[in-house]
Design brief:
With 484 residues, this protein is mainly beta. The chain is 11% helix and 40% strand. It contains 5 helices and 35 strands. The strands form 4 sheets. It has a 19-stranded parallel beta sheet that branches. The chain has a 10-stranded parallel beta sheet with strand order 3-5-7-10-12-14-17-20-23-26. Strands 30-35-32 form a 3-stranded antiparallel beta sheet, with no helix packed on it. β33 (449-454) and β34 (457-462) form a beta hairpin. The longest helix has 22 residues, at 34-55. It is elongated, with a radius of gyration of 31 Å.
Amino acid sequence: MLVALLLLPTAFSLHSAPLHRRAALRSLAPHASPRFRARARALVDGWARAQLSAASAPWTVSPISFGADPTGRTDSSGAFDAALAALLARGTSGHHDESGTVDLGGALLDLEGGDFLLSRPLAFPSNFSNFGMARGTLRAAPTFPPGAFLVEVGTAGAPCTNWGDSCTEDVSLEDLFLDGGQVANGVRFNAVIGVNAGPDLFVVNFTQSGVVMEGGHEVLLHESWVAACWYTPPERCWLNATALGSTTGVLINGNDHYLNQVVVFGGLNGVVVNGAANLLSGVHTWNTQIGAVPNSTGILVTQWQNRLETPYLDFVPLVLEGAAVTTVTGGFFLGGAQIVFKPHPSGYPVRGVFISANQFFASGATPDVVALPGAVPYSSIEDVTIAGSVSDDPATPRRGVTATITLRNTTSWVADFSARLVWDAANAATPLQAVTYSLWGCDGSFASTYAKVEGAVVTIVSNNPANPQCSVTITVDQSKRAGA
């Protein structure tokens, strides 16, 4: 054992080494071979150097070093202000990136697993890049300014003239727990580009918004959990309209942002997309439950050119308000969750929408896709495709913009499509755009037929007063088609 202790650097004792290192040391004996002693020295010294390097890494700043209380018992805002100032001082070398922001060289605000109480926002100002924060908990004190954000990345409301409305770049937030304490909001990204938010970002107990992307481009929020309040007991949170108020889990007020593997489990709205060219992939919303909280949505999309891949709408609807050039594919809709079209207040057309290969489970008699009427009618339906949906319940009406009905062995050919079309007669912007039919298996002959259309009802009319018995297949399309 004496030999083992002699091998240790002077700054460390046997008890400061990890358990597996201690076992290696205890296995040594005074008569160990020189080769074995050399290997043991390398083992322990390598660990020791790594610990010293981490403790004195020039790119890390610890709020604890400035007096922050890692137990969360006292306010640490002053210490965080000092730590942030030290972090920003890393930019005094004068190095700037191509857009002019100050490059902090990968500087990290390391919370070291602490739990910190804040009475005011932690605000990273604009015009800095290449920095991050990780490994700890931030909680809002009761005296926190109501409705302010625990963390601001980029200066809120500051003008930004950089290309793409992006004045803060290359930021990383990971392994963080943000608790608004029912007084504050979570984190807001203001005019930023190139943000890695996640993995393991947990945002709870906010009053209005959990995560907000305000302008900017290419914030990647991934492997994260967001909730306005805790999910147990449910009657206190996600089944309680008063508790949820007007909260939104993730609010995207910009273009080209990404959500990947994000769960929202409490809020009036799970995700609201008020921008274009955003991608949501593997987003699971169970923020409330159909019928429990009026006007709630799992995902609400109000702008064009957005893509939703493999969403999971868990007892909450996906609402497309004036959608255009929008894709919804591979989704799972549970417990009566629907895809809902809603007319945009500005009267935008529904154009270029592709909805495909979605699964609806435990929906009962609730239609899979519906269109709501509104004060402003739908201006037009153009190049919309709804196809490939499946349901576990044969009673679930499946609706689309195209539908086919076959009438077999009859002399009266009247087909009512109103229950099979998304836009019924009450809210359709235009009548049926196309009707095709074919007669087959007739037991007589006639000179000619034609289709008579009244709303969503199609009647095949023959000039033969005594119609022969035939089967007829009728297909209709509500959508205008490019080139047709």
